[in-house]
Amino acid sequence: MRNDLQPSGIGNEIINIGHANHSRSASAHAPALLKPILDEAIRGFIESSPGSLIDLAEQHGSPLNIVLPHMLKKNVQAFGRVLQAHRVRHAIYYGAKVNKSQALVRAAVECGIGVDVSSLHEMRDALRAGARMADLCATGPAKTSEFHAELLAGAALISVDSAEELSDLIECSATIAPPSRTRLLLRYRPAASEASRFGMGSEDMLSCLQQLVQMKDRFSFEGFHFHLSGYAVETRVQALRELLPLVENARGLGLRPRIIDIGGGMPVRYVDSDDYDAFLQYQCKEHYRNGRVPESFYPYGSRLDAPGWLDALLASPCTASQSVAAWLNDNDLILALEPGRSLADQAAISVFRITRVKQLAGGGHAIFVEGSSFSACETWFNSEFLVDPILISAAEGNDATQAGPVQAYIAGHSCLDDDMITNRLLAFEREPRAGDLLIYANTAGYQMDLLENEFHRHPMPRRIVLTIDAAGRQHISPDD
Ligand SMILES: *Cc1c(COP(=O)(O)O)cnc(C)c1O
User: Fold this and answer.
1) DSSP-derived pairing of the beta strands 474-478 and 462-468
2) Which of 179, 267, 387, 395 has the fewest CB atoms within 10 Å, counting from its CB?
3) Residue 408 pairs with which residues in a beta bridge?
4) Pocket of ligand 1, candidates 98, 119, 196, 226: which has the most ligand atoms within 8 Å of its Cβ, to mutate?
5) How far apart are CA 60 and CA 47, in angstroms?
6) Which of the 8 DSSP states describes residue 200?
7) What's the DSSP call for residue 188?
8) Is the C-beta atom of 116 inside 6 A of ligand 1?
9) Can you give the pTM of this predicted structure?
10) 161 by DSSP, 3-state: which?
11) Which residues neighbour 479 within 8 Å (Cβ) at sequence distance 6 or greater?
12) Cβ(95) to ligand 1 under 6 A?
């Protein structure tokens, strides 16, 4: 394998490792570059003020997660435009587990959407951010009785995962006698996910519906819910089609379903789709430190972004004569969505400071950063975050000892052999130096804080909020 990058960036400026004059024809086996797609405001922040990023890492430590709540609002608006174009009544719930940032929950509440919570703690964060209980949708298969009690008392919408959970709720309701009827969704398990532990098959759904008919004074059946793994539009359309007879059954029993909640899983595009396809096509085991091509990746270069996905879903045929949108509208149904990752698209960057660059026996380099792969999760799932980091040099100019171009992988600061930020070999035009920064774009969606911990007694990574006003002025504040 050869490295065919041309040196181009020098000094205290951004050198995106995807920037150089990369010629695929020069070497069919060179790994394709994966430049991050960056929102213009974020690009402006990174490019205009590399010095302030160095200062921020100095002040707050490394890794540093910089959260951009205004991006969540932009993402909500983009969904809103699609829903309005299809004239579909809708309710959006921010899937709060995607990121621990309180500022993101607050951004969701401020733009008037609900919050999908799966624990007492997520519920309390949402309330602290100003959400009303009525704007919460509680999901998850293992809600505790304490969580149930608070949801019942506050009249939140509850998605019931199993017949067993419905029994628990009935019991809890008898004990606490909530002030108003409890609003319930029933979570469906599509035929294609028969082995899943989430949701209920048709038989259990029917028996729950029958119970709910008997308890109309205490429970209000609101409709159906599902949340599927994977990112395909078609699996959701298929699940909807399977729900049609259940909607009829419910009506036949005298219930009035109002909501169809299709969960989350709308895809985020992190890198250009053509670059991504080229990457997949040309990658080989030589491109990885451990000589292993991961078996699966998130679809980082998805052709559909989240709004495009929703548009495709709504336009898909649902019945012989109706699209999904038409079916929802003709049946006076509200479409509920619980996007997590797609609402957090572009809503954070993660800054890792380089501690040491070490030359390896085989000729490559290991870059050690202050921070660990727990703050960039993907290698723990035997996969890779297929977005190239942006290198920011701390010092002006080149120094004569710097080799370049070099290939390097990026390791965390722990003593675990598996503590790899990336096993993928990255091409740098010049050897990075201690004190330089690696900026990972778009880490808000399950990357930055899902596994974070205090291993080796390193303190928890800090999270700060960056707001950029209409005039382009930047303001940093704590994320609390
Ligand atoms: C995780 C989850 C979501 C959010 O999923 P994304 O892939 O982040 O959009 C929504 N609903 C439920 C029930 C979930 O478990």
Assistant:
1) antiparallel
2) 179
3) 365, 426
4) 98
5) 20
6) B
7) B
8) yes
9) 0.93
10) coil
11) 67, 101, 102, 103, 463, 464, 465
12) yes
Three-state SS string across 297-361, please? Answer: CCCCCCCCCHHHHHHHHHHCECCCCCEHHHHHHHCCCEEEECCCCCCCCCCEEEEEEEEEEEECC
What's the chain's Rg over C-alpha atoms?
A: 24
- Backbone dihedral angles phi then psi of residue 231, each to the nearest 5 degrees: -130, 15
pLDDT digits (tens, 9 = 90+) for 76-91: 999 999 999 999 999 9
User: Could you report the per-residue pLDDT of 353-387, keeping only the tens digit for each?
Assistant: 999 999 998 888 999 999 999 999 999 999 999 99
Q: Using N-to-C axis directions, what is the helix angle for 69-85 and 306-315, rounded to 10°?
A: 20
Q: Residue 3 Cα, ligand 1 centroid: separation in angstroms?
A: 40
Give the pair of three-digit tokens for residue 146. Answer: 């304490």
Rounded CA-CA distance 121/118 in Å is 8
pLDDT in tens, 92-103: 999 999 999 999
For ligand 1, the distance from its centroid to the CA atom of residue 337, given in whole angstroms, is: 9
* Least trusted range by pLDDT, from 34-38, 149-153, 354-358, 395-399: 395-399
Distance 351 CA to ligand 1 centre (A): 26
Reference 405, options 377, 376, 429; nearest CA is 429
Token pair of 136, please?
């919460």
Region of residue 431 (phi > 0: left; psi between -120 and 50: alpha; otherwise: beta): beta
Q: How many CB atoms lie within 10 A of CB 424?
A: 23
Partner residues linked to 188 by β-bridges? 200
Q: What are 280's two structure tokens?
A: 């997949």
DSSP 21-40: ---TTT-TTSPPP-PBP--H
Residue labelled with tokens 């990121």: 99
Q: How far apart are CA 258 and CA 466, in angstroms?
A: 39
Distance linking the first and last C-alpha atoms of the chain: 47
- In three-state secondary structure terms, 265 is coil
* Residue 115 in this model has a pLDDT that exceeds 80: yes
Question: What's the mean per-residue pLDDT of the chain?
Answer: 92
| DSSP assignment string, 281-300 | HH--GGGBTTS---S----T
Quick check: 390 and 434 in contact, CB under 8 A? no
Q: 63 CB less than 6 Å from ligand 1? A: no
Amino acid at residue number 179: P
DSSP per residue, 51-85: HHHHHHHHHH-SSEEEE-HHHHHHHHHHHHHHHHH
**What gap in Å lies between CA 161 and CA 168, rounded to an integer?**
11
